[in-house]
Fold this protein.
Amino acid sequence: MKLLLISLALVMTDVAYAQTDYKSEVWSPDNGDGTYTNPVINADYSDPDVCVGASGEDYYLTASSFNCVPGLPILHSKDLVNWEIINYALSSLYEGDEEMEKHFSTPQHGAGVWAPSIRYHDGWYYIYWGDPDFGVYMVKTQDPAGKWEKPVCVIKGQGYIDTTPLWDEDGRCYLVNGWANSRSKFASVLTVREMSPDGTKAIGQPVIVFDGNGTENRTCEGPKFYKRDGWYWIMCPAGGVPTGFQLAMRSKSPYGPYEHKIVLAQGKTNINGPHQGGWVHTKYGEDWFLHFQDKEAYGRVVHLNPVDWSSGWPVMGKKGEPLAICQKPKSNNTTVVNPVENDEFNAPVLGKQWQWHANYDEKFGVPTAFGTFRVYTYKLSKEWKNFWEVPNLLLQKTPADAFCVTTKLRMTSKADGQFGGLVMMGLDYSALVVRRVGQMFQLVQMTCKAADKGNAQSEKIITTLKPTAEDKIDYKPGIHEDIYLRLSVKDSQVRFAWSKDGKTYSDCGDTFLMKEGKWIGAKFGYVAAETDPKCDRGWVDADWIRITKD
């Protein structure tokens, strides 16, 4: 039956492969009674920004993707509560620039796309972002779900981050941005400059319009630029990522001076660091603010709060404190949908929940016509210490505070030492893998603390497994292991289990404390690697992966 579904899928277009109306078993914010529970996206969509689409009924969200590829995720909603992943604006970093594509062909952890903004202007959707190592970039399209044009470098240089354009009524265009101290050696200032009317290049010099140095407004960054009732507004976070707050500032000139107020802070709630996001005014006359909350290993998840302008300032949540439960925005939407997590690997394209850790190479892995996705073993260097250098990690974001991941896979090995399996990846990681040793396989837990520091991983052998199948031919035969692997997460604790039949599971290995990655939350998925540079690659054929409550 699965092969029949694949045969049918092969004759369809890419658009048809999106899994529609997916409802998560582990987190869905829509309470079904006209209210919702925050976060509206309980996954690491860091530094979110949002715009209203041409119809007024559609909302589009993007977020930081850093070195993960494809980049610039595009999420769509009809009500700001129910979201689905529909596209990516970047197929690679950076498509069309051979030198840049080569640079990002190996993992550049924490580099790449920082804090993008998405805007709809004059029939086009634009996304701007700062790459702190190379400059300000922009992509555009007339259909967020379709093909985005190749990225344009708007400003070359180092240190630029968190960029947002503003097209004024007179046709002039301005850009606000923050600065990365790690590159520029100064921070906590916002600058505004004029751009060409088409937004493709700077035509003015930057002007510092806000300085948070030496004040509670340190680490002011992530600015978003708006105009409302004759006022220029910059909304930005300050005070630090996990502990800060949201500022709003206004001026009658894009170049300031700006007066400012705190409009959202943790207060007496348990929602820390509520800040950095995007404001939208809906066709129903309502105002809303989407922002993130830093949840450490789980990443920066997305909250939605109402905005009250009655005082002349955008006071967010309930009197400036974030809400846990709230009445939904007005809309015509009745569909409950969440970002997709499960994957049966029945389509001849990769599911939209998946990202690689570097620019994609076809030797990383490919879909098959057999109802599986194949991840080939990556050729590690002889001096390798851990997975930090592996670009073909196929990963997705954690979807909830507690969840269980189960996958059915086959490990095919052509040579000794090849391994593959399930990993929870971050600055620390742990993986449950099947590794070939002679004509047998070992089930091994591989764990590393401070992988980003170059530390060697430790290994714990769980058991020895006989191959479930062996090639009978003499020419480069392989041996195969069919197995079910599982990881369960609760309170940042990861526990592993395995099964031969998918019915009875045995807990195994050591409990692992999940750890965030470089500017991203921990991510789970597949790893496959080896150290022999000469032998034919082995591979993991992932049959399916399912995310459940337990």
